[in-house]
Amino acid sequence: MMKLRMTGFVGALVLGALIFAQAGSAFGQADPRAVEIFETVRAHYERSIEGVDDYVMVTNLFTTYYKKAYDNGRPYFMSRTETEVFGVQSTSSTSDADLFTPENYERLKNNATYAGRETIDGFDVHVLSIDKLEGLFDEGEGVDDTVEDLKVYIDADDWVLRQMVFSVETVTEDGVMKVEPMILFKDYRDVEGMMIPFETISFVTGLSEMLTDEEREEAEQGLKEMEKELEQLPEGQRRMVERLMGDRLKRFREMLAEDRIEFTVRVEEVRVNTGMEDWE
């Protein structure tokens, strides 16, 4: 069973997925068909970024800055993400956790098993199950989340990622809880040679196990109180708050009712070769 260590799984889920979509040592004998597919994906990826030194991706949720780096002559992108919520800005640390770094790529390639072909959103895809990736995205001591049972679905014609499915185990005071995210990559567009999904939809199920009955009741009561407070605001203020919050209240209520949450990242702008400086 694969275990991929990571922190803050929802945020890492979206950001890591976008990194993969642009696109340790081996344990046991590699699957030749899986190796062939990953090598084809890697070749397409490297050709697509030949003329790109850096780029900025602006989405409806965050802005990510990418800068090309090299490891033993193989190109990949380092990234840094900025998020602003209610006027408060936060910035992630610089990361080289691109799945196409030579080390990560070798782990993926040599620990994948070919699982046949399927159809995703009308696209013919190769299905790869990936195992034995201990240490990938290892954040060190104190990390309580692990990712298991990763499957990736690679377009058989365009060699881009169409879907990713896995499960996340989180250690809490009440024991081990498991949720099951699925990510769909849609609306691929050619941006200066790079194939970028302009819409990424994530579905997460199993969230009810992470809430006790008391916590669920408190959450529902909190929603009612927040909705009541919104109703009591002057119309102008209420509209401003609703515009800032979007459909978050509705989605959170649906999550509580249906044991499922869905969120979408939409790319609004991509700026290529900006000459960005002050990376560190």
Structural commentary:
Mean pLDDT is 76; it is low at 1-12, 23-27 and 135-143. Strands 1, 2, 3, 4, 5, 6, 7, 8, 9, 10, 11 and 12 form a 12-stranded antiparallel beta sheet that branches. The chain has 280 residues and is an alpha+beta fold. The chain is globular. The longest helix has 20 residues, at 213-232. Helix 2 runs antiparallel to helix 3 (102-110). Helix content is 29%, strand content 41%. It contains 6 helices and 12 strands. The protein has 2 domains: 4-206 and 259-272, outer membrane lipoprotein receptor (LolB), chain A (Clam), CATH 2.50.20; 213-252, no CATH class.
Q: Give the mean pLDDT.
A: 76
CATH class designation of the largest domain: Mainly Beta
Helix content: 25-40%
Query: What's the CATH topology label of the largest domain?
Result: outer membrane lipoprotein receptor (LolB), chain A
Beta-strand fraction estimate:
35-45%
Radius of gyration: 20 Å
Cα distance, first to last residue?
A: 36 Å
Integer tally of domains: 2
Task: Please provide the count of β strands.
Answer: 12
Low-confidence stretches: 1-12, 23-27, 135-143
CATH architecture of the largest domain: Clam
Helix count from the secondary structure assignment? 6
Shape: globular
Largest sheet: 12 strands, antiparallel
Task: Tell me the series of helices and strands, N- to C-terminal.
Answer: EHHEEEEHEEEEEEHHHE
Structural class: alpha+beta
